[in-house]
Amino acid sequence: MALSLGEQIYMNFDKYLMDLEHQGRCLFLPFKIQTLNLKNIGKFSERKVEFSSNNNVISGHVGTGKTTIVKAIKCVSDSQELIKSEHSDGEIGLTMADGRRLHLNICEAGDAQCIVLDDAGEVLDSIHYECFLRYLRDLNLQLIMTSGKMDDELKRIFRRAFSDCRFIDLN
After folding, report:
1. Tag placement on the chain: N or C end, fewer CB within 10 Å?
2. pLDDT interval class at 19 (50, 70, 90)
3. What is the rounded distance in angstroms from the CA atom of residue 114 to the CA atom of residue 168?
4. pTM of the predicted structure, to 2 decimals
């Protein structure tokens, strides 16, 4: 008898995370995120998102900006790899043809301290989803996760897995 996709994922959460990373839906960050400020990015004219140092779930309907938040975090984290290996920080300055300037300060971090997941549990039933959340909890990293559907049952599942979960509703 063939295993369902949920059962296959349950048997190997590490591989599931690597597959999500390959799809661009999972980021391992060498730092924790306290706040994210967005101005004129995606759907947001101005938005400040404050994160718990532990577990965070960003929820909202389609088009509310969940993936925009993940992409903004990825944009910042991608700059980390540009730093020369023997230095702990770096800078990028750019002047455009019309005279506008862009300046980016980059600091080196370390080993993974945060995991960002964009709609990672969509293929799992509630039992396997709760097991996946407990697996994530046991990684002992800051978690930032998006979910397009946040009903009462899903909130209970999150609360059972994470006693300290912060819900950020974009609706």
Report:
1. N
2. confident
3. 17
4. 0.77
